């Protein structure tokens, strides 16, 4: 079966966005404004409370964005607009919350092992340092980091261990992220599926296509760098471009999945 190239997917995304850039950019601006609300809080309790509410809201708004891009990519642009933000609230909102919790659950085993490894390495570091002086440094009472009295070979082994552990965790997180990257799009495309069914389907769709999706995401890196140079303004163009391309990728996978 024919798989569209990254260039073809991106061209299809730009064609789908033609005539709808204003609506897409408006929706992205709304997401940015909502995500920034907690920055105006004055105390830590307010920041935490607002962050939890905003994170929860963003889960549902993100599903609305996916619904918006689906309409554009499927030739239903006339029905697409800011009202799509309400999509998740109208179609089993608990499913999208469950999707978010499942993402955390799938990452949990690797995260636990990672922090256990860091804890073990920290114990070795502490064994070779003056703990009292280290605590004073951490509390800011002294400015000089206490000397770590460990043999150079042991110290090098610990540093190497932390590097290898960190790289392994990043690879694990990338694998999980790529494998289950299509779950939100599946939940939007198939409103009657459960979260676990969406995860299984995403795993099937991504079998043999993880590196293909990774290459597609990396192809936006020059645009991201350009967006940084423009003080973030370029991201208003880039985010709809990426969002629409991701839906095009999903549709291509569905059409070619046996």
Radius of gyration: 23 Å
Report the span from N to C terminus: 9 Å
The DSSP helix count reads: 12
How many β strands by DSSP? 0
How helical, in percent, are the residues?
over 70%
Largest sheet: number of strands, sense, barrel closure: none
Uncertain residue segments: none
**Coarse shape:** elongated
Mean pLDDT: 87
Summarize the structure.
This protein is mostly helical. The chain has helices spanning 6-17, 21-35, 44-73, 87-90, 93-127, 131-138, 152-179, 183-189, 195-206, 210-218, 221-229, 235-256.
Write the layout of secondary structure elements.
Blueprint: H1 6-17, H2 21-35, H3 44-73, H4 87-90, H5 93-127, H6 131-138, H7 152-179, H8 183-189, H9 195-206, H10 210-218, H11 221-229, H12 235-256
Helix pairs in contact: 1-12, 2-3, 2-12, 3-5, 3-8, 3-12, 5-7, 8-9
Would you mind describing this structure in some detail?
The protein is mostly helical. It has helices spanning 6-17, 21-35, 44-73, 87-90, 93-127, 131-138, 152-179, 183-189, 195-206, 210-218, 221-229, 235-256. The N and C termini lie close together (9 Å). The mean pLDDT is 87.
Characteristics of this structure?
single chain, 258 residues, mainly alpha, 74% helix, elongated
């Amino acid at each position: 079966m024919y798989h569209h190239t990254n260039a073809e997917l991106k061209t299809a995304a730009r064609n789908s966005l033609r005539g709808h850039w204003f609506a897409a950019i408006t929706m992205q601006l709304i997401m940015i404004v909502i995500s920034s609300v907690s920055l105006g809080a004055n105390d830590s309790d307010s920041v935490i409370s607002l962050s939890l509410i905003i994170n929860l809201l963003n889960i549902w708004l993100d599903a609305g964005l996916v619904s918006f891009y689906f309409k554009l990519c499927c030739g239903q642009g006339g029905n697409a607009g800011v009202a799509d933000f309400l999509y998740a609230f109208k179609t089993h909102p608990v499913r999208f919350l469950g999707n978010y919790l499942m993402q955390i659950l799938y990452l949990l085993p690797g995260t636990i092992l990672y922090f256990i490894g860091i804890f073990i390495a920290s114990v070795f570091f502490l064994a070779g340092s003056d703990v009292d002086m280290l605590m004073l440094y951490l509390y800011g009472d002294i400015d000089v980091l206490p000397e770590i009295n460990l043999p150079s070979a042991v110290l090098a082994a610990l540093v190497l261990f932390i590097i290898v552990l960190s790289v392994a965790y990043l690879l694990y997180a990338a694998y999980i992220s790529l494998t289950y990257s299509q779950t939100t799009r599946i939940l939007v495309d198939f409103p009657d599926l459960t979260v676990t069914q969406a995860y299984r389907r995403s795993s099937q769709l991504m079998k043999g296509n993880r590196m293909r999706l990774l290459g597609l995401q990396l192809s936006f890196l020059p645009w991201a760098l350009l967006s940084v140079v423009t003080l973030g303004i370029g991201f208003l163009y880039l985010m709809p471009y990426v969002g629409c391309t991701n839906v095009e990728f999903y549709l291509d996978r569905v059409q070619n999945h046996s």
